[in-house]
Amino acid sequence: STRCNGVSSWGARDDVLRFSVSEHELGASAVQSPSSSSAASPPASSVGQRTLVQLMATEASSKPSKGKKQQKGKKGGQDSGDVITPRQEDYAQWYQDVVYASDLVDQSPVRGCMVIKPWGMAIWDNLRNDLDRRISDSGASNAYFPLFIPQSFLSKEAEHVEGFAKECAVVTHHRLCASPDGNGLIPDPDAELEEPLIVRPTSETVIWNMLSKWINSHRDLPLKLNQWANVVRWEMRTRPFLRTSEFLWQEGHTAHSTSEEALQCAKDMLDIYADVCEDMLAVPVVKGVKSASERFAGADETFTIEALMQNGWALQSGTSHFLGQNFARAFDVEFQSRDGKRELVWATSWGVSTRLVGAMVMTHADDAGLVLPPAVAPVQVVIVPILGKTPEDRQAVESAIDDVLAELKAENVRVKVDDRENVRPGAKYFEWERKGVPLRVELGPRDVSSSIAMMKSRLGGDKQQISLEGIGARIATELQGVQSQMLEAAKARLEERTIPLTSYDEMRARLESDDPSQSGLFLVPWCDDAANEDKIKEETKATIRCYPLDQQEHVDGKTCFYSGKPATHMAIFARAF
Fold first, then answer.
1. pLDDT at residue number 158
2. Lowest-confidence range among 110-114, 284-288, 573-577?
3. Among the four 103, 471, 531, 571, which has the fewest Cβ within 10 Å?
4. What is the DSSP string of 414-436?
């Protein structure tokens, strides 16, 4: 529990990656750990010793495409009191307004990246801590692998390199020098690397290079690793949390002696992701398998969780991949089996990212701002004191607040007392509502004399009188109710807008409608055909989000809604972020 007095204070986050690499260190492929690096800016004289990251992508350009406007966004530092665009008026702009106005992010000086502010980082921390515990319980251990990956590594797995080549950022030089014309700095022509380094888009290749050294016998298996890190995938059209050139995530990588064990591991992780979304974010998801066209580059099978946003669009919220023996073959990772034979290992990889914060925003936020599930809210309860006009009133209120804080702390409630004297109560109400705090408690002299407080839920409704006696247990129960209410509302939306169809024309008409209520997840019988899948995407912008795991038993005897051929799968089509 904390009190704020004008400005909230936040500790430094231990998962913000800061690094500097000297010429010698880069040659040794070494990156300083966060604990050994300095957060301070280097002096101008040392710039030439820093790494130059030349960010290149085949499709990237510093100028917006002709005929298209750059995506609108709030400028950094704008007043959080700015008006939020109503959802019904412009859903995309509403999302932008909410994430900036609620103090989750700010714009970065680097195009396509975002600055996650303390409020947004605290939400991610709460989610990350819970997921990290579940990953650990599954038998995986945390590790860390280099940010830089030799270009040759990425080339070893053909499908993998094809899938990521257009998104890669590349380091080509290890030093800067003064430009001959005196205008700033340029890459030093004498400092070109022998082999370009890829800034991590994902870590399969560098991890499997290491596993080839660590795995020799069946006794070394299964080996389960997890990494919390940042990755770079150069994006042209970005939205905070949903799609940025750099983002935070966890990636798990496992090696197994049998395909059955690896496949089960991939499915188990999908269940963990689905549980985290429901338990922490109050976001229900559809668990399914990706079509071959949507499969992760280098995977034999990709499992996914898909969430439904308020506008009827889908959001891929996590994936778990059965990699078969593809990476083991590419990096020559074999083990000696129990009967003495040399065999390739079987593999999985799986991950979720800060995109989950965007999923939470678009599932629950409203036109007044953010609405936070208590499980991830940095502050679950904000107390706004009304101190009164006399010293006696002030002392009575402050004493009562101390008692309330003690009770809430005993219930493990995250609470903040907003005792800023330069801000009126009404402005405080507005600020904390916009930031999505689940419950607000108001306490003034008359309340104290009556042994009550006033409580207001972010979900709406009238203020409630609650007794100061046993207030800790009452608040804890209310928070559980808010969490459950948010999940049930999201489940009802998902059920209502999962729409079974047998006609492609009806799906197309719904997708072309200006009425957002016509959109959703369209459950259809489908004959697997990549060419037809591409045609539908071109005609409607809808894609196969997944083949839902719990619907495949219903495919027998059905015909494809598009081709009329016997259906091979039940599929969910939708527009997606």
1. 65
2. 110-114
3. 531
4. -EEEE--TTS-HHHHHHHHHHTT
497 near 520, Cβ under 8 Å? yes
Amino acid at 153: F
**Which two tokens mark 374?**
């208590």
DSSP H or E segment with residue 107: strand 105-107
* 297 φ/ψ angles, rounded to the nearest 5 degrees: -65, 115
Residue type, 231: V
* pLDDT tens digits, one per residue of 331-356: 999 999 999 999 999 999 999 999 99
In 478-554, the DSSP E strands lie at 498-500, 521-526, 543-548
* Eight-class DSSP state of 87: T
Compare 371 and 3 and report the one with higher pLDDT: 371
Instruction: Count CB-CB contacts under 10 A for residue 342.
Output: 9
67-78 as b/e, with b when 16 or more CB fall inside 10 Å?
eeeeeebbeeee
Rounded to an integer, what distance in angstroms lies between the CA atom of residue 558 and that of residue 569? Answer: 9
Q: Kindly state the tokens that stand for 93.
A: 């702009």
DSSP 8-state assignment for residue 167:
G
CB 18 within 8 A of CB 38: yes
Please tell me the distance from the alpha carbon of residue 257 to that of residue 489, in angstroms, as a whole number.
43
Cα distance between residue 287 and residue 301, in whole Å: 13
